[in-house]
Amino acid sequence: MLLLAALGPVCGRAQEPARTPLPTLPAPLDVPKPGAATDAPYAPQPILPGGVVVPLFPPGSPYLKMDRIREPEKYNMSGAVPGRIASIVNIHNPSIEFHPVDRGINTGAAVILAAGGGHNTLNVGGEAADFVPFFYNYGVNTVILRNRLRRDGYNPQTDEVYDIQQAVRMVRAYAKEWNLDPNKIGVMGFSAGAELVAAAAVLYDDFDQKNNGAGDPLAGVTSRPDFAGIIYPGPSPFARNRTAPPIPRNVPPAFIVCGGSGDRVHAVWAIEYFSAMLAMSVPNIEMHIYGVGRHPGDPLPDGSHQSGGLTDRNDTPYGTWQFRFIDWFRDLGFLQKPGVETKAAKDVATFVTQPAARR
User: Fold this and answer.
1) What does pTM read for this prediction?
2) In-domain check, residue 32
């Protein structure tokens, strides 16, 4: 008994001191919110700090639906990350959001980002906002496109394509104000957004001709992109059962990425675009079809869902496609200082002068 008594304080569990309750956590700060409904056309709000937002079309434009122009956008927020916008819907006043880089690293290049979402949502989180800091590291300015959607009553092959074409014109028109090189402005799209990019890369002449009136403030500014990033794309103008348009002689170079058999439908659409360009011997067309890779949102064997954009993709090579894009981008001269003619521009100029037989 004496031994137990002596060991009691050692073997027994010590009494824990009473703890003061932790302070209540504060609510997340600076969570982005859509603008309010007013009697004026809806004013799109930046989704990232410092964004400069410009509507694509002036009030009263025939491209806009006057009966819906005042409706606010609707943000779908991440359930786990406070303040992160996963997607946006109800877009009736389409816009661009510009994010510059510091002057010391500025290449003058700008990438207009067209997010995917099956024309049902605009997945601006993983397929637009995440690319702003990524491209910043390379001195590349970014522009987030908020285009209209089929779910809200718009036609993907006309209305949505018009939005990205107008975005190219607008960014180029503001090149001086934004310290951009007007010859280094291009587009990158994902899934449904890549469908728009593929169309914008070949249909610019028609759009420019239709929007060249004296009353158009962007008259004379071309919608031709200087490069096109086509990432796990939807159907292009060259997809089966579509009437393929003629390929312009000065069609821009394109970088194409998709999973292979794990994303067969989108891989076929990627190959159709590549094949159309290859048949014409268009210079600087590069494509990567990865053996292991699925479309974003598709279920994986473990029940989880495949991610897209910049996510790691479980340490597979498909998760490094963005660095292959940077390799291609650097090869073509887009990472040089502003005002230096790119290899891409030189190759296009040479290609245009070649007889058709040689192409």
Assistant:
1) 0.92
2) no
